[in-house]
Fold this protein.
Amino acid sequence: MRPFCCWLCVMGLLVSGCSPPARDLEQTTTRLMMGTLVTITTFTTTAQPQQWQERERQAVAAAFTAMEQVEQMASRHRDDSDVTRVNNAPRGELVVIPDGLVQMVRTGLEMSHRSGGAFDQGLLPLIRLWGFSEPLAPTHPPDPTAIQRWLTQRQQSQQPAIQLLPDARLVLRDDSVGLDLGGLAKGSALNRALAVLQQQGIDHALVNIGGDIRAHGRHGNRPWRVAIQHPRREQHILTTVELGAGESIFTSGDYERFFIHEGQRYHHILDPATGFPARSGLISVSVWSRHDSSLPLDGWSTALLVLGAERGLEMLRSATGIEALLVNEQEEIIRTAGFPAIQR
Ligand code: AMP
Ligand code: MG
């Protein structure tokens, strides 16, 4: 029996060209970045796992570097970022900005226009008053007179308060305006990360920046699956969604950064019309699309949370190819017909 067995083994190796069988490989790398956890997951079927892993490591490192560059450019928390350079310039002075920032600011201006001002990338002075992104999280609202002062100054502002000239120069009109691209930065970072992974020959990947996610390729013989966080039950999943190649999903919610003061929830997405956290009846908004760029989608999730279900869905109708899943204060789910298949 033994010689026969060995003979079979030898024959087996000869037939397969001495190569081991291909197997599925999933790799996950996580880093703390942009104030949240960023995860890149890749998938492949390969007979040479070691070679693949080496290539994958390099590609993933390059994708993280690309996202760091977005943060370097667009973070208002970094002293050396382009956004800080703009914010520190005297008001009324033209500042030359890099192409990547032009793209973000242009999308921000477009989103502001489309959302009737609900999306506003110029809210830095108000955001500073509330302090949600500061190292020491706030526990109570700011002085209402300070908010009122900002609102008055804003109403008296020369319009447009943010102006982008065709030659990549940007001007902020007065002290009521300052750039905060927190509502767009993840979209830009996802675009860059996916472009790099593709360039480096990664055919299947999922990039997740704190729940804002973009898919490339597939997870073996099925689409990628992603979870949407439950807005009220921590560590619970609201639902799971299948993401096809090139599709993204962005979620904005009142549970991400918040405090409760005298029984009232105050959160980090502010309504420029009131100067207070948005109270639109929505507690979570997820938007989906398969557009080439994730940038506008990032803006839409933020804008819809401010606009509420009725006005938000009305405005979304003008944006082709974007679907939404909304959760209201009663924790009811409202979703548009094209929102991707849901697994429960
Ligand atoms: P997101 O998680 O994409 O919804 O973005 C939330 C972040 O966007 C906040 O942390 C602020 O930096 C910024 N932000 C807050 N309110 C607004 C608003 N009305 N329009 C645009 N950006 C905002
Ligand atoms: Mg956003």
User: Anything to note?
Assistant: Confidence is low (pLDDT under 50) at residues 1-15. DSSP finds nine helices and 16 strands in the chain. Residues 4 and 10 are 10 Å apart (CA to CA). Residues 24-344 form a domain with the T-fold fold (CATH 3.10.520.10).
